[in-house]
Known about the structure:
By secondary structure, this protein is mainly beta. The chain contains 2 helices and 16 strands. 8% of the residues lie in helices and 46% in strands. The strands form 3 sheets. The protein has a 7-stranded antiparallel β-sheet. Strands 9, 10, 11, 12, 13, 14 and 15 form a 7-stranded mixed β-sheet that branches. It comes from Pinctada imbricata. This is Serine protease.
Amino acid sequence: MTRQNSQSGSIGFCCKMETENGTMKTVIITSSHVLNKKEKVYMNIEGESVEVGNCIYSPNEGAMNIPSLVDIAVVEINENNENNFHTKVMDKEREKQDFQISEKECDQYTQVWKHGATSGLTTGIVTSPKFEICMKNGTRFVSIIEGQSKPFSDPGDSGASVLFQENEGIFALSLIVGQGSPDKHPPDESSKRNCFTAILNSAIQRFESERKAKLHITSPK
Length: 221
């Protein structure tokens, strides 16, 4: 996924959005710092850069600001490109699966994975389910993930979904924001295997309340 300025990020997932007047739209969800509101979004489709939609929501206020760390960006997909997207996520075997948003705080040391645009599939563990960040414009929580054999994320992976499995269901916990942690950014050598992530459940609740819209996510089997 590419922005107008050619910088890239990752798709978290796609889903249906029900607007305040009941209209259903297909949307892309990614991290808020990946896109600015009203920005056009492009993707490589069959070897060509294609404009696929516009960012209709992003409270991004610049790097290392509360909204850029903890909120989502929403891209409305153009109707003629909807067939290029699906509302599933990939498991560790790269098979498309139904999923839902985790509504509970993840346990420490839960095993997770992500598929990013830069580093592809990586696995890790949750080291801090709720890491508190305090800044001039507020206090919120992020999740810290540690890569198991290499860094969990690289530049360009921002926006990718952090996923875990519980029983037969796959759950989306959070979205990649950046390497290290908010108190070590840019990361030093000791923290490069870590990344901090925006907790999806609370970010989606803020979006739905502000926009008076509803995101419809598929349910696990």
